[in-house]
Amino acid sequence: MINYNSSREKLAVSLNVCRGMEASLEISAEQRVLFVGLVCVDLFQVLRTYPTEDQGHRCTDSYWQRGGNASNSATVFSMLGGNAEFFGTLSNDRELSFIENDFKECDVKFDHSLVIPGTSCPISVVIISQESRSRTVLHTNKNLPELTVDHFKQQIDFNSLQYGWIHFEGRDNAFEIGNMIKHILHYNEMMKKKEANFKPIIVSLEAEKLRLRPEMDKHSLWQLPDLLFISKDFAQNDGFESMTDAVAGYFPKLKEEATLVCAWGEQGAAAVSSKTGVVVSPAFPPGSVVDTCGAGDTFNAAVIFALSRKQSLSYAISYACKVAGLKCGMQGYSGLKQMALNHF
Predict the structure, then answer these.
(1) How far apart are the first and last CA of the chain?
(2) Which distant-in-sequence residues (6+ apart) come within 8 Å of 282 by Cβ?
């Protein structure tokens, strides 16, 4: 557990001495943001109340939806008006055509993703209780392998200059993710030496899953991204009781110019950088909650979109809270397209 008071003191000292210039997170509107991680199929089962074990139940609704954190964030980024690409492994199972068609409908590119023969598509069964508004996710991945740094090097060409930002979903391949980020950072350093005006590729990482926590220390992932997203569950597992305590506690672990963002559900979100200090936004809940699945992925995509369009950190987390709130009031993501018409 991290000492709260010590963390606050470290944060105050680091900000007072201006530990470093904050990294510029702006990219051109034409550049792609590459979302690296999982795509799966979500099977939603909607019931009036949560099912009792060993009994038959009748659902009020049932539907398929493309899922996975990186996949969802790519969709939202595209809906908001961004140039999005998903990169991950795909199964050549019967669900492949559904996934490919849905990517195309959402204008998310996936042309560099790898189709792995002889594998099964990951499936998530999502049980939604209308009474309690809870969602319970049962995930299965039989044999689809995670990405490796070799996959990344083979498929993603930085020299095309089409990528302005690369976002990683923190998964079980933490060692490989670390090497992928290091590959990007090496390219950035090499290009800076060649071209004085070179704009480095921005890197962000999502730390949501609790099993990623020990890997963050083991592979020194704290020091790698320009922007780190920390989930509420991740922070609470470390003993933090509020979003402001969380950003204050984790911030000293990051590299000097990095930015940290932590969403806290119904309480909103907090963020910190050396330039801004701690900034906070309230939540903007919908009039009626319809579907909270993917709200965190929506938030992350909206933060990336706002920051990539040269908006302030304070504005970005407020904007993201609003977009996430809208998403919770609708099924799926297609209704978010209107957001692109009302901002920037």
Answers:
(1) 41
(2) 267, 268, 321
Strand partners, 13: none
Beta strand 277-281 pairing with 269-273:
antiparallel
Q: Specify whether the CB–CB gap between 144 and 75 falls below 8 A.
A: no
Distance CA 300, CA 77 (A): 9
Distance between CA atoms of 267 and 298, rounded to whole angstroms?
A: 16
Instruction: Answer yes or no: are the C-beta atoms of 88 and 36 closer than 8 Å.
Output: yes
Give dist(CA 95, CA 66) in Å, integer: 10
SS3 for the chain, per residue? CCCHHHHHHHHHHHHHCCCCCCCCCCCCCCCEEEEECCCEEEEEEEECCCCCCCCCCCCCEEEEEEECHHHHHHHHHHHCCCEEEEECEEECCCCHHHHHHHHHHCCCECCCCEEECCCCCCEEEEEEECCCCCEEEEEECCCCCCCCHHHHHHHCCHHHCCEEEEEEECCCCHHHHHHHHHHHHHHHHHHHHHCCCCCCCEEEEEECCHHHHHHHHHCCHHHCCCEEEECHHHHHHCCCCCHHHHHHHHHHHCCCCCEEEEECHHHCEEEEECCCEEEEECCCCCCCCCCCCCHHHHHHHHHHHHHHCCCCHHHHHHHHHHHHHHHHCCCCCHHHHHHHHHCC
* Burial grade of 30 (CB within 10 A; 0-12, 13-18, 19 or more): exposed
What's the Rg (C-alpha) of the chain?
Answer: 20
Report the C-alpha gap between 204 and 61 in whole angstroms: 36
Question: Which tokens is 64 given?
Answer: 């398929």
Averaged pLDDT in 10-residue chunks for the chain of 344 residues: 46 39 81 97 95 94 95 97 97 96 97 96 94 90 97 94 95 97 97 93 97 95 98 97 97 96 97 96 92 94 96 96 93 81 60
Instruction: Give the Cα separation of 178 and 210 in Å (integer).
Output: 17
